[in-house]
Amino acid sequence: MNAPAARALDPLFAPRGIAVVGASRSPGKLGAAMARSLAPFAAAGGHLALVNDRDATMYGTVREAAADGPVDLAVLCVPAAACPGVLAEAADAGARAAVVCGGGFAETGPGGAALQDRLAATAAATGIRLLGPNTSGFLAPHAGVTASFVPGAGDIEPGRIAVVAASGGVNHALAFLLAEAGHGLSLAVGLGNGAGVTAPDVLDHLADDPATAAVALHLESVADGPRLVDAVRRATVRLPVVALVVGRHDIGAFAASHTGALATSWRTTRAALAQAGAVLVDDERELADAVGALAVTRARPHRDPGVGVVTAQAGPGLLLLDDLRGRRARVPELTGATRDTLGGLLPPLTYQRNPVDTGRPGPALGRVLAAVGADPGVDVIAAYALHEPGAVDLVAAAAEGATEGVPLVLGLGGTGEEVTRARRALRDAGVAVAADPRGTAAAAGALLADARARVPAGPSPDRAEVPAGVTGPLDEHGAKELLGRLGIATMPRRACADRAEAHAALTALGGPVAVKLLDARVLHKTEIGGVHLDVATPAALDAALDALDAAGARRYLVEAMAPAGVDLVVGARRDPVFGPVVLLGLGGTTAEALADVAVRLAPLTPAEAAAMPAELAGHALLDGWRGGPVLDRRALGRTVAALGDLLAAGPGLDEIEVNPLRLTARGLVALDAVVITREADDAHADR
Fold first, then answer.
1. 3-state secondary structure of 335
2. Which CATH number fits the domain that encloses residue 18?
3. For burial by CB atoms within 10 Å, which of 129, 135, 345, 564 has the most?
4. C-alpha count within 13 angstroms, C-beta hemisphere, residue 161
5. Both 520 and 579 in a single domain?
6. pLDDT (average), residues 205-213
7. Both 528 and 578 in a single domain?
8. First to last CA, the chain
9. Domain total for the chain?
10. d(CA 77, CA 510)
């Protein structure tokens, strides 16, 4: 994104002149509220024109308003049906941006959607940048513009945090939450229906905005996944992006395989944002704590940064530590040298290994922070103390304890003006501040996640060679032949056209074997009785074949039984929004019920894929749990990356799944495989 393109939203967010079309003198109307909100813009010397052809005291048209001064931005406060025509008139008069606040568009049904399409077509034809419709507007405090009808929005002070929200209501809710925490804003935008300006557009605008130090991003849906990922990736080169994605409990429409069912829009969107460098949060309060910290300070890039915990009160310190461990933060034991230093500063019997409990806040707190910050295993300090000015000056202690390259997050508990002033002074000194232990953990966790996200990806010399020209449909035998070409192990097997071949296969392989229905159209064989295990004798084989024939089998797969182990599911699918994605989770027939998965965009490197198991809640099962097998993460990374490469390189492929991929004492082995091609997509009998 070049600089001129990135500044294309300046007429919207930093206009020289604004026309309120549909302005009113009736206090309860939208046009009156918008005129009131924008009055300070006029008082500061901006050209504010009120337009209403039914009021002789106002301008009749935007063109008349433009004759008296520049009109870069038109704010439309007129009925939905009139908006396309008014938008065209504003563009013809020279306006380069517009906000459509009112509803009555796509959110109301087909009729409104058609009206929104007309509005978007008008914007595209004229080149005017359209924010909305169905939005409560935006705030640009540095430019003195409050294009919002929400009371109190104009009181928010200028600052270094930008809010980009799908919802106008959420935009204001986050803005007020950040203001209550003591932060000012550089920009706060509610996208509404997003018929024109989208989240990627605003992120591109902010990427080189010197007034912005961090971005709070709220998403409800994504229209163009690659465009969003590119915008986040560009923005995070300079400034952190903290993302809250709505839809945790949306399980989506089940696709043909487990992969499609598990890779919901919420999971995929979060995975894509994290891969692009964003920090993920789970709720709006955590977002405020996280983005507030990252607007003040950032930790150095690190693959596995460690956090040092310091507390002046044991109870809150335990809450802080518990929350950090829940975020899988690494809390390393401090070195002997560090503990020796702390032993000379703190009372005996206080805990000093990490966390460090000072027993009570006191004059030594600054030196304690300095000692912890100097420990080689500590990359971020998370500290908590109640406001007790008679015991310690926390602002002075933070300054004394400052360590180059090791940011401090300080939870300062208390209330009143003195606490507010202390928190402001800490922020001004480059210390991230929170109000409670949970907020402190959220802030520290954001610094750790941001540090991990900024580590450059290494080279990938061990990528598998991707077969070209994969076409289908492929049955399980064909799918496993494809896996073999990717270097993925399978059990010895025979594809059999009749019973005689099945019996010959049993003799050749030896028992016990798995006997399966072999048909590319049937994806979930177990659900129709298409799989029989531990078949060891000719009589048992005949019984299994009888059952398969009853299920509609025409061909059979006879395969050696695999050794015991831990089952995983690995898949790659073509997401309708983001394109190729890969998924890893605990597998077998319970994959959808457990939903313990990690998702990435493809293609990805084997090293990136090898990091996915750490995200699984059941990751301990892969590390020799109770004498079980230990996962070779490099081998798994090669497998997952190979599936992603295959899908990314093959436009004829829709989905590939290995379920289960069993972790055994001898390594990973694929027990079942599904390959769905475009030409076969509508031909499956069992979906």
1. coil
2. 3.40.50.720
3. 135
4. 30
5. no
6. 97
7. no
8. 43
9. 4
10. 79
- The model's pLDDT over 90-107, given as tens digits with 9 standing for 90+, comes to 999 999 999 999 899 999
Give the residue ranges of DSSP H helices in 110-247. Answer: 110-126, 168-180, 199-207, 225-235
- In sequence order, the 6+-apart residues with CB closer than 8 A to the CB of 608 are 275, 457, 600, 637, 641
CB atoms within 10 A of CB 366: 19
Instruction: Return the pLDDT at 677.
Output: 85
Tell whether the model's pLDDT for residue 259 goes beyond 50.
no
DSSP string, 1-16: --HHHHGGGHHHHS-S
Between CA 502 and CA 441 the distance in angstroms is 60
Q: In which band, very low, low, confident or very high, does the pLDDT at 254 lie, cut at 50, 70 and 90?
A: very low
Same domain as 318, residue 437: yes
Range of the domain at 15: 3-212
DSSP code, position 403: B
Per DSSP, 376 falls in state T
Residue 218 lies in a domain: no
CATH of the domain at 573: 3.30.470.20
In whole angstroms, what is the distance from residue 336 CA to residue 163 CA?
44
Strand partners, 48: 18
Q: Are strands 17-21 and 47-51 parallel, antiparallel or unpaired?
A: parallel
Structure tokens at 385: 């103390």
> Which of 191, 212, 233 delimits the end of a domain?
212
Do residue 107 and residue 184 come from a single domain? yes
Assign residue 309 the CATH number of its domain: 3.40.50.261
Last residue of a domain, one of 560, 594, 616: 560
580 burial type by CB count under 10 A (0-12 exposed, 13-18 middle, 19+ buried): buried
Question: One-letter amino acid identity for 77?
Answer: C
What the block records as the tokens of 547 is 């059952």
- The confidence score (pLDDT) of residue 461 equals 60
The pLDDT value given to residue 687 = 35
Judge if 588 and 524 occupy the same domain: no
| Confidence band, pLDDT 50/70/90 cuts, at residue 651 | confident
Amino acid, single-letter form, for residue 286 = E
Task: In whole angstroms, give the CA distance from residue 528 to residue 518.
Answer: 12
Length, in residues, of the chain? 687
- What are the E-state strand segments in 576-635? 579-586, 597-601
Question: By C-alpha distance, which of 11, 77, 21, 22 is closest to 46?
Answer: 11
Pair 14, 156 in one domain:
yes
Considering the chain, what is the average pLDDT of its residues?
92
- Which tokens belong to 435? 């109000």
User: What is the SS3 assignment for 160?
Assistant: strand
Residues 7 and 154 in one domain: yes
Count of other CB atoms within 10 angstroms of residue 153: 22
Is pLDDT at 25 greater than 70 in this prediction? yes
